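Convert to structure. Protein one:
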Amino acid sequence: MARIGSQARPQGAGSYGRSPTFKSLIWRIVFLHILAVAVVAIFLPLVLFWLLNSEIDQLHRDAMRAQAEVLAERIVAQPGGVLTFHLPDSLKGLYSEAYGRYQYDIRDAEGRLLFSSHRRSAAAAAPRSSESISGAAVTRDIDGNTVRIRVAEDLAHRDVIIDDIVSNFFRRVGWITIPILLILLATDIIIFRRAIAPLLKASEEASNIGPARTDIRLPTEQIPREILPLVTAVNQALDRLEGGFRVQRQFTADAAHQLRTPLAILRTRIETLDDRAARQALHADIETMSRLVAQLLEIAELDTLVLDPGETTDLRAVCAEVVASIAPFAIAQHKDIALRGTDAPVRIHGNAEMLQRAVFNLAENAIKFTAKDTTVDVEVGEDGSVRVRDCGPGIAEVERELIFQRFWRADRRRSDGAGLGLSIVRAVADDHAATVAVENLPGGGAEFTLRFRLAERAEPLPSAGGGG
């Protein structure tokens, strides 16, 4: 059986985190939106300027055409066919050369100048009309005479403010589009974050999925319709994985249970043998096989055990119980085991039964490798740590990670273990978000250290001697 949590990450999985900003969906959208804002911030004022200028030109032409219509009404044909033009006093000031803002020209069909607000000749008037005057013209038929009335405004005149509005648009009005677009960008970011909030919640749920919590499924409530097929497919994949885990765990547990009965029968039959030496050798083999079966059952139970995040226990009481239970095993091998460290309770987050199995396997492993007539120390620290020290040969540096793999043994010729004890220790540490480390001692031997999370100090502490 392999635990998902102990498997190596697939190659390339770490590359996703090399550029988190670029990989982020929000930042991709924001980056593209910034580009859009920059483009809009440049072209929107230009478009507005063009629209405003076009509208002003149209209003100006309409105003000039209306004035030309008024002037056309003042042209009268006399009985001899002569045209006369009479400008009322109310309009003379507007077209006076002293004021200089408005001008008019009235010409016949051949373009000859009939009436004008300025006294210059037609040849002299034309250049000024094309250079500084902008206006409109209307054509009328008066008693068979075609006349063309043209009214213009000098845009350079001090009283003309429309042109100033256009020219100052960028400086006084155009800039306002930039903060408006930035506010829109900030609003979009908030909207994007709210939109993907269900995805963030689903990712938090996914982080809790593991071999011990295969029952968790990603929530589908409020998931965007475009993402829902992916979430549904993931949940279906988790259903299949859970079924596979269930079959695997059940097979291990069933196999271990089924092996217990043949081993018990075999132990009974060995007792009938007359050869004492052979009987003792077979007994040793039976004990090894029984230990292997017990460890397989232990692994199956650990895989199905769900840890309550709020559960706490007394680490020192757990270690004291382990030392008391394994002491006869150590004494039978002419070795000793001692509990050291703090005498006060040490409350940690964890399950007492799982912790007992982890500390028991560490102690049993230390007793196997420590020299005769030496002591194995189990030290409990106030920081939530457990240190198990032996006086054995130590562990080579290249083997310090291998020893926690299932069924790994440095010496394959040894028959006193199957290489499962330390893998159980690592599994318990992973389930408790704890760490396990090993190092050699200066005077010889090895030291295994388990570090657990301390419980909050606000929690009530049981009296000394209370077990976990």
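Protein two, convert as well:
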Amino acid sequence: MMSSIHIFSSFPISTSKIIIKTLNTLPRHLDDLNLSRLNLIVALDQVEMQEWSVMYETQGRIVRISCTASVKSTVPHGLDSDVSAALINLYIEAGMPEDGRVTVAATSLLHLCGWHKSGKYLGLLRECLERLHQANYTVSGGWRDHPNRRWTHAKFHFIESLNFTTLDGVGLFDERSMIVLRLADDVVASIRSGYVKPLDSEFMSSLSRPRTRVLYRVLDAARIDPEDPHRQVDTLTFPVLAWGDQCKIPSDGQAWRVIRALSAPHEELVKRGYLADVVLSGRGRDQTVRYEFARDFTRVDPALMRKFREYGVADGMVRRLVRELGEVFLADAIARFTALVASGVLVVRKTKAAALMHLIQHPDDYPYPAAGPAASPGAPKAPRTVMEPLLAEPTVEEDFDGLPLDRAAERLIRRLDLHYRKLFKVGDYDLLRFQVISGQVSPAVLLKEGIAAAAAGRREAFVEQLRQAGDSS
């Protein structure tokens, strides 16, 4: 059923209470501003919609956005936002290749989405990828060509091509499955142009419901000035029906439907400290929603947050500690705590969280590890009495040493892909992964053979030898 909404009102942000500030904290992950600002994912956990269309006016421009799913599918929604965000960062981590190609194991993609590694989520991942591949998007007047400072028309599938391996003929993912896909040219051009924003993916994945994660992603992008991505606002005000269209929530012109759909996400984002308040005003169709963002909400390096979670320290407490003490001090404190516990110098009597917090609050009460005290950030460095040798480059064997087999397989695939991406098919990646995980080959040996073959101009022969080895195993 087509949901067609025509809005010619002050759609973007209220100018009555805007506070501009510079973005100076960059989390490890990024999001594409075109995708997150326009929001192409319906902010509902489940839908039956096969198409939607919205139109609105903003800053003197008419913007039209539509989505049409395939005959047997629905439009992207809910969990699809997790997958699209993960794919954007996979593409960036791969060096942003011009062809937009991304290669990843299905189980690795589950991890990047923040999902459990299970058969249920493997099935959901397959469905999400299919929806993102089959849905056809059209954006008129709203897609930003930022380097040229122009607004353009774009028509694409988020995933333009999709290939993967499975054990059966039905197409169900398993732990061996490899995925090779190509992102849309418009998406690739947007990311490569640098039209991106920080994304606290650690915080996003910790939110409990898919629709909450979609709303967080949309709000975090709506704060950004689309013509100056280095600026953001602390307060946003929207007509409720217009905001429902931005979140792609069908309302049939009734504001209460949007309010009901977003009530639980609002509650969670306030409880988690991202929003200071959500204020509803007015009656009926004329209702507005004002978002007040928590100014002291602190982004934390994902690796540091994971360490604190391992010791049972709540996220809110970690953010407060980062604001008060800084990430450098806290990272040093965790390393010190871990070393003292491992050496038996510090014995945890209650909980690790309580012991770690006591060390952070009373650092002088604890000895430093045997290696000696770490220098404080502002302390002058002692002069060196001897020349320290330069660290040698690790050997290929050392590069894989100690890695779990699945991570060793991923590293091998990533390294070989630099030389063989035009020759490898998706089945070749599957085979490489299987051979490493099953212990049939050494990833270090195979990498050296592959690089040597590429240097000698024998790429085709290496690939054929690899496939023959797979056929005989």
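The chain has 18 helices and 16 strands. Residues 79 and 124 are 8 Å apart (CA to CA).
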